[in-house]
Amino acid sequence: MDSIRDRYKQLITEMMSHLGQQSGISEKDVLQEGNKELLPYIDRIITDHLLPGSCLAGFENLQALQKLSEQGEPCLILAEHYSNFDLPAFHYLLRQNGAAGEKIADRIISIAGIKLSESNPAVHAFAQAYSRIIIYPSRSLEIIKKNYKDPNKLYHEVRRSLSINRAAMKALNEVKEQGRIVLVFPAGTRFRPWEPETKRGVR
After folding, report:
1. Which one-letter DSSP state was computed for residue 180?
2. What percent helix, strand, coil does the chain show, rounded to 5?
C-alpha cells in the first residue's frame, strides 16, 4: 500500500511551491498565521480518506465556545492525538459547516512542536497551512540532550529552547486577549498503543 507521501508526491511538490524559504525557528517567529493557499491541497487528501457521513458532532458547542472567545474569555480545546491529520481533519470538518464553521476555524490557533517546522520540508508544508504557536517540547529537549555530544552546541540549543518557549508563552497570552481559541494536544505527541508512555500528558 502506497504511503501518503508516495501517493500524493506531485500534489505535495505543488504545495511546497507556495512556501517561503524554510529556516530555523527563533523567538522572533513562534507565532505563525496559517497559509490558506495550502488548504485545498490538504483538503483533497482528507476527502480521499474520510468515510461517508463524517462530521463534527456537537457543532453547537463549538459555536458557544466561539461566542465566549468573542466576549474576551480565554478558550481552550484539548484534543486527543492519534495521527498527523487530526488537526487538518478537524479544520476541514469545521469548514464544512459553512460560514459559521469557517469563522471558528479562523479563530483556532494550535500549539505545535518545533519538529513540525524543522524536521523536513514536506511536514513543514502541512504545518504551515494552520495558525500555530511553536514551542520547544520537553521531549525534544530530552532527545537533544542524548544526541548532542558537543557541550557548546548543547548549551546553545538549550538556550534556544528557553528563548522559544518564553516567546511562545508571551504569544499565547496575546492571542488569548485577541479572542483566539487555543487548541492543544495534551499528550504532546501522537498516541501509539504500543508505547503506553505516549498517552501520558505533558506539562
Report:
1. P
2. 55, 10, 35
pLDDT digits (tens, 9 = 90+) for 49-99: 999 999 999 999 999 999 999 998 999 999 888 888 999 999 999 999 999
What are the residues whose beta carbons fall under 8 Å from the beta carbon of 158, sequence distance 6 or more?
141, 144, 145
Cβ-based neighbours of 106, under 8 Å, separated by 6 or more: none
CB 113 within 8 A of CB 24: no
- pLDDT digit string (tens) for 1-48? 677 778 898 998 898 888 766 668 889 999 999 999 999 999 999 999
Q: What single string gives the DSSP state of each residue in 77-101?
A: EE----STTHHHHHHHHHHTTHHHH
38 to each of 81, 116, 130, 177, 199, how far by Cα in Å? 22, 15, 9, 27, 30
8 Å CB contact between 144 and 120: no
